[in-house]
Amino acid sequence: MRISWNCALLLAAAVKGYTNPPFTYERLDKNDSALVILDMQEGLFSLSRDYDAVLYRNAMYAHAELGKIFNLPVIMTTSAETGPNGPLPNEFLKMYPEVSVVKRQGEVNAWDNAEFRDAIKATNKSQIIIAGIVTDVCTTFCALSLREAGYSVWANHEASGTTSVDIREQANDRMREAGVHVVSYFAVVCELMRDWRSSPGAAELLPVLDRYFPAYGMVTRAHLAAINNGTIQPGEEDLP
Predict the structure, then answer these.
(1) How many Cβ atoms are within 10 Å of 32's Cβ, its own excluded?
(2) Active-site annotation holds for 138
(3) What percentage of the chain has pLDDT greater than the value 70?
(4) 103 forms bridges with which residues in the sheet?
(5) Which of 7, 138, 142, 190 is catalytic?
(6) 100 phi/psi in degrees, rounded to 5
(7) Which of 67, 151, 171, 219 could be disulfide-bonded to 136 (CB atoms 3.0-4.6 Å)?
């Protein structure tokens, strides 16, 4: 009997240890979100070798435009931009002429900079969408600090770049373990939009997706062409 009782206790402990807590789906809220454009500098671009250069440039610009599309507060920051890291692309500065770039002179982790911290706090938002160069340092360090400070952090992994796929995956795992949401650009867009009938919705977003997410842009183009000029091809009428 004693052995059976001990076994029961061990079994109960094991079951308790492997029981997952109730899951709560946290959703991005465009009214409670801010966008961080982190060290996406022209000199640092060459370090982003885990993605094809054309794809990564596209992802950077797509991330930057999220603030404009969804009317989010935007924080832009650079690291030692007068040196080899270089400035942010001019297009980003023209998107947000009213935003003052936080120009860090030495802090690797943007959160260590008082002006950056104040800019985040001034948004009065609890959800921070972030991406930058490089993933394992600039993005990860800042994301972890934001989590420690109590923010919900959403890392757009397509818009963060680093020197290898292996390093990227390790950094993304590190962020996930800290509770950072590591998500795609399209996931961010759809979380913020929620409903194609919203504003911004299909009317505003389909042209944007055509530029930055051509896989979906071509779907909409094909539909438009079918409506305007399409004819049923032989055999199509037999499809379910």
Answers:
(1) 14
(2) yes
(3) 92
(4) 78
(5) 138
(6) -90, 120
(7) 171
Quick: pLDDT tens for 112-171: 999 999 999 999 999 999 999 999 999 999 999 999 999 999 999 999 999 999 999 999
Residue 56: C-alpha distances to residues 16, 85, 165, 202, 236 (Å): 44, 17, 13, 25, 38
pLDDT tens-digit series, residues 14-43: 555 556 678 999 999 999 999 999 999 999
